[in-house]
Structure formats: C-alpha cells, structure tokens
Amino acid sequence: MEEEIRKEFMEMIKLLEEGRLQEFKQKATECPPVDIAEGLEEIEDEGRVLRVFRMLPKDISSDVFSYMTSEQQQLIAESATNAELKALVDDMFMDDTVDFLEEMPANVVKKVLQNADEGTRKTINQFLNYPENSAGSLMTIEYVDLHDYFTVRKAMDYIRRTGIDKETVYTCYVIDDQRRLVGQVSLRKLIIAPESARIRDIMDTNIVSAATTDDQEAVADDFRRYDLTSIAVCDKEGRLVGIITIDDIVDVIQDENTEDIKKMAAIIPSDEDYMKTSVWSLVAHRLPWLMLLMISATFTSTIITHFETLLSGAVLLVCQSYAAGYSNAGVLRWYMVAAAFAAALCTAGALGIPLRALGRGIGAALRLPGRILHRFAVQPVRRRRAAAKTARKLRRNAERTAKKSKKNLPNRRALLYNSNVSK
Questions:
Q1: What is the mean pLDDT of each run of 10 residues along the chain (423 residues)?
Q2: What are phi and psi of 105, to 5 degrees?
Q3: Which segments of 48-152 are extended strands (E)?
Q4: Of the candidates 336, 333, 328, 337, the residue with the CA atom closest to the CA atom of residue 297
Q5: pLDDT value of position 149
C-alpha cells in the first residue's frame, strides 16, 4: 500500500474514531473501494475491521467487500446479521458473489444461500456447478442484451433503464427470440447511428465467444489475441448465458503466470499467498523436487569423481555438468530470493529504511555465493593451471639448455685435445 494512500486511509479512520460520521462517509465515498479494502487488510484488530466496514456507505460497501481477502470476507459474513448479509449479496455482481462463495466454508455458504431470494439462490447454484477454472465459473450475468429487432432509440432507452445494474454497457450483445447470440454492437455505434435504425442493420456479426466449459486460460488467450474488453459466454445450444469482463481476466492472467513460474521453478503450485504461507508449507512444496535433484546430483558427482583426472583440464565442462544437475534447484533458490527481496522492499518502506542502503546490503548478500564459489572453486583451478604452466616453462628451458650442451660437446672435446697436445 502506497504511503499517500495509507495516509488518506488513516485520516478517514481518524474521522470515524472522533465520531465525525458524515465526514467519514464523505471521505469513504471519494476513496476508491480497492484502496479501502487494502487499508482494512492492514488492520489486525477484527473488531475494528467490522466497525469500519459497517460504517461504510451502503452504495460502496459491496464493492469494498469484493476486493477484501477471503479471511476478512469470512469474518464479515459470519458476523453480519441475516438482513445485512442479504443486502450485501443483492448489491454484489454475480461473478463476485460466486468468487466469494467458492472461498468460504460450508457454514458460510449455507448462511448466504438461506438469506438469498429464490432466483439468486438458483443462479448461484448454477454457477457453482460449473467446472472449476472454466468460463462458466468466471462469467457474470449482469450484461446488456438487445433483441435484433430493436431500434437504436429503443435500445438506448433500455440501456438507460437497466444499465445501472450491469457490469458493463460499452459492449451490448444481440440475441434472437431463442436467446441465441447473433451479434454485438458497441455503445459508440449506438450513439452515432440514427435513432430509427434497426440493431440487426448496425450490429457486428463477426464476434468472438466462449463456451461455458472452456478453460479460463484459453479465454485469457482470446482476450490477448483480439484485444477484447469483454467476451460473450454461450451454452452448448449457442444461447447467451453470461459475459466475462477484462477485470476478471487480468486476475486470471496473473494467477496463471504465477502458476507457470512456480512450475518452471519446480515448486508445486499453491493458491495461498506467499507472505501468508507457513515455512512448513513452503518446505512441503519444494521437498519432492529437491529430493529428486539431490539423487540426480549424487550420480553426477560420482561420475565426475571417477573421471576426475581426465576432466582436470576441462573445468568448463564440469561446471556445465553441475549446472545441468543443479539448475532447477538454483531456480528454486532464486525464486525464493526474489520473493524475499520483494518482502524486504515492503518492510523497508514501512520502516523508513533508505532503499540505497537496503540495496547495498542485499547486493553484498547476493554476491556472497559468487565469492565463495570463486574462493573454493575458481582460485584453486587457476593456481593449478599457473603451477602447471610454470612447470612446463621450466621443463622447456631445461630441454633447451640440454640441447645446447649437446651441440657444444664436440668443440669442448677438441679444445681439450688441443690443450693436451700443446702440453
């Protein structure tokens, strides 16, 4: 949470504690719901969280609730009265309600369904029956659907009447009498088109849609490929049953990327937040892969030890062999280092530690493994190479001296003979 946002949130809490409720509600109305939810997450006192949430204006409390963590959502759902819970569920969009219920224990789900009206209860049960991580479980039913025989004037009147309860009005979906999807039309085109024009004459029939059973990752790929802000979801008969908006897909893309990174780092994916995951859980997620890597590294070390004499002149090949065996373990370690580095930045910001000093400390810590490797692996190899080079040089000098001595040996004998004759 940024310092400026935190400061505004604390000012808002101060107004509530001083009993200035009207100013508190005015300040809360001006503050984005996601910032209020992040501020509530930093409050450790559960009673204080409940008091702040209950004092929020009714028109923004459902939006704030949809951004809160599952733990705080459960706290509020268990503490709320039946009337408060019914009003909260009625004000939430259906996809947010389903996401909330999927994270809740059975007693909270039962309490919510008991206080929902029959139509809402039926819709929620229908959403919960869709496969997990499918388009059906991700979609919302708050969308604008227009019949193809509508005129532009009638369509605009319909949007004005019902648009307040829709998740988006920028893209309207066109259906026939059997509710089959036949096209789509943008709000921009409706504003520009003549009021007497028929929807079927101005709609776009080249549309991208998803099935209720499609995987959410495939839907995310369609958003990226076709630059969509929303996509229609149809059942097996081609009837329009809901839409998926870009805000939900952004969360899916982030979750899928996190899962892929963990798989590449040989860590078992988990839905738990890293900063809230226990040490034993992290160990359990890493241990299977580390055991496998340890066994493979044992075989690698045995082979290298057996051919140590042969490989003494090919240090680079040995390093590559070790890197191949330890690459996944190294990625595991650096994944954890990156997460710890992010946590350190957050902690430094909270404590007011200068980032430059923090960077120097972390840089020194990250350079330590390299220095150890250089001290115990690189330097001994360099010393052995230097000693071998010096020995070769001395041997060559000795050989040159010996050759010169052999060439000069006859001349010495001749000189010795001449000296003896002269005597």
A1: 79 87 89 89 87 88 89 89 86 86 86 85 87 90 93 95 90 94 95 94 94 92 91 93 92 79 64 65 72 74 67 52 50 51 49 50 54 58 69 72 59 49 49
A2: -70, 170
A3: 145-147
A4: 328
A5: 94
Cα separations in angstroms, 325 against 48, 68, 266, 314: 52, 43, 13, 17
Q: Is the dihedral of CA 162, 165, 168, 174 positive or negative?
A: negative
Q: What is the pLDDT of residue 150?
A: 95
Whether the predicted model's global pTM rises above the 0.70 cut: no
Give the type of residue at 169: V
Give CA–CA dist 37/238, Å, rounded: 38
Positive or negative, the CA dihedral 330, 333, 335, 338 is: negative
> Which helix (DSSP H) or strand (DSSP E) does residue 182 occupy?
strand 181-186
Distance CA 92, CA 175 (A): 25
H or E stretch at 242:
strand 240-245
88-121 burial, b at 16+ Cβ within 10 Å, e below that, comes to bbebbbbbbbbbbbeebeeebbebbeebbeeebe
Q: Which residues contact 379 (CB under 8 A, 6 or more apart)?
A: none
Please report the pLDDT score of residue 304 as a whole number: 65
Q: Comparing C-alpha atoms, which of 71, 61, 13 is closest to residue 41?
A: 71
Question: Do the beta carbons of residue 170 and residue 144 sit within 8 Å?
Answer: no
Task: Report helix, strand or coil for 232.
Answer: strand
What distance in Å separates the CA atoms of residue 56 and residue 29, rounded to the nearest whole number? Answer: 8
Report the pLDDT value the prediction gives residue 307, as an integer from 0 to 100: 64
DSSP annotation of 146 reads: E
- Rounded distance between C-alpha atoms, residue 362 and residue 337, angstroms: 10
- Cα angle for residues 94, 98, 101 (degrees, 5° grid): 140
What pLDDT is attached to residue 268?
A: 62
**Do β-strands 181-186 and 209-211 pair in parallel, antiparallel, or remain unpaired?**
unpaired
- Quick check: 332 and 267 in contact, CB under 8 A? yes
AA letter at 301: S
Q: How far apart are CA 311 and CA 359, in angstroms?
A: 39
The number of CA neighbours under 13 Å toward the Cβ of 92 is 27
β-sheet bridge partners, residue 173: 145, 184
Residue pair 172/179 in contact (Cβ under 8 Å)? The answer is no
Which pLDDT belongs to residue 411? 52
